[in-house]
Design brief:
Immune_Signaling-Apoptosis_Reg, two-stranded parallel sheet, single chain, MEI1 protein, mainly alpha
Length: about 300
């Protein structure tokens, strides 16, 4: 089925949402709900379809070309198609790298536009933000070096008026710029305050991947991002809701992140002791899977 469905997608236009949206979802789940052997063949079928990749290019570009909806919580058919497109491309990036599949057509994306889609959200639905962050995680994990993706609009030195230190940091983080990193971190922090479970999971995962990328490129910038005092205020905000327990997945994963990068100004021995005390008193068998996984990461980091 992959072959005719992918061919059908390649004959569509981005505005053919009624046909494209379920078709892209079928392609996405075909990649994920199959055996590794079949998965490798599925990736090869999709990446050999030039028309499909050209269509995906046009679909993703609609993210910043169309006007934002009047109701941020409403997922229109156009937004649903964008979600499917971003998730499918993120998966193709992941599996193309895993299986070293031949690429017949590259995708070109403006990194600044992708980052701005998250930084300047303009009433984007939560599911669309989550989908774009999945894509960001994929390119960060591959150090922007995928043979399937070409990054355009890369940052270059901004002249002699810019401080030399910032220019050196920008060069180390290329194609990201330091200012883009800080803007993205602030946006991710703000998104966490919404306390939406799906959004929180995506934000924390994106933050983890971003700091990992920064640590490889420039440890000073990574440690500076991980030790921002605003993170401590963010933790207090997350704990100030109806559920004050530290045993919340996003809180545990943030704590593990701060421990990993030795951000002692964000998390203290007192907070670590409180988490251990809560874990000792909890019925671990009844914890949700996300909480159990986050607690495991935290304890391993301790």
């Amino acid at each position: 089925l992959l072959f005719p469905v992918s061919n059908l997608c390649g004959k569509c236009r981005p505005r053919d949402t009624d046909l494209l949206q379920p078709s892209l979802n079928f392609l996405y789940w075909s990649l994920h709900q199959t055996t590794p052997c079949s998965q490798q063949r599925a990736v090869a079928v999709l990446l050999s379809n030039v028309s499909l990749l050209e269509l995906l290019q046009k679909v993703l570009e609609c993210t910043w070309l169309r006007s934002p909806p009047s109701e941020p919580a409403y997922l229109s058919s156009e937004d649903a198609l964008l979600c499917s497109g971003w998730l499918l491309v993120a998966s193709l990036l992941l599996y193309q790298h895993r299986y070293n599949t031949e690429v017949h057509q590259t995708l070109s994306l403006d990194l600044t536009e992708v980052l701005n889609a998250v930084i300047f959200r303009k009433k984007k639905p939560i599911l669309l933000l989550v989908s774009i962050m999945q894509f960001l995680r994929a390119v960060l994990r591959q150090n922007f070096s995928s043979s399937l993706l070409v990054i355009v609009g890369q940052n270059t030195a901004q002249g002699a008026t810019q401080p030399q230190l910032s220019s050196l940091q920008d060069a180390a983080l290329h194609p990201l710029a330091v200012q883009q990193v800080f803007s993205l971190v602030v946006s991710l922090q703000n998104l966490l305050v919404h306390k939406d479970l799906l959004l929180s999971q995506a934000v924390v995962a994106c933050l983890e991947t971003l700091v990992e990328y920064l640590y490889v490129k420039n440890q000073d910038v990574a440690l500076h991002v991980a030790s921002q005092p605003w993170h401590r205020f963010l933790l207090f905000t997350l704990l100030n809701g109806g559920q004050k327990s530290f045993l919340q997945p996003e809180v545990l994963r943030l704590m593990a992140l701060f421990l990993r990068y030795q951000s002692s100004n964000i998390i203290s021995q007192k907070e670590i002791s409180q988490i251990l005390q809560e874990a000792a008193e909890a019925n671990l068998a009844e914890l949700p899977e996300a909480t159990s996984h986050a607690l495991h990461l935290f304890l391993c980091q301790v």
